[in-house]
Amino acid sequence: MRLAEIEAIALNVGIIALACFVTFIIYDLAKKSNAGKFGTIILFSVLGLGLGAFLIKTIIVALMEQ
Fold it and tell me: 35 phi and psi, to 5 degrees?
């Protein structure tokens, strides 16, 4: 494997790990604040929107480079 291939794989794994960690942080925040069902949905919607935008940007950039 070339170094560029290893870097690409590491980047993808890192982005997935970051997304999982952010999801855990949002869940933990909802749990510790006793947000309830509606509050948890709002937290995941609003804070998850930022994560979603980051992931969509990554996908769009990857598609444009091809």
Answer: -75, -25
Stated pTM of the model:
0.72
Categorize the per-residue pLDDT at 32 as very low, low, confident or very high, splitting at 50, 70 and 90: very high
Q: Is the pLDDT of residue 47 over 90?
A: no
Q: How far apart are CA 15 and CA 32, in angstroms?
A: 26
Q: Measured between alpha carbons, how far is 43 from 39 in angstroms, rounded to an integer?
A: 6
66 exposure class (CB count in 10 Å sphere: 0-12, 13-18, 19+) = exposed
The DSSP H or E segment spanning 1 is: none
C-alpha to C-alpha distance for 43 and 54, rounded to whole angstroms:
17
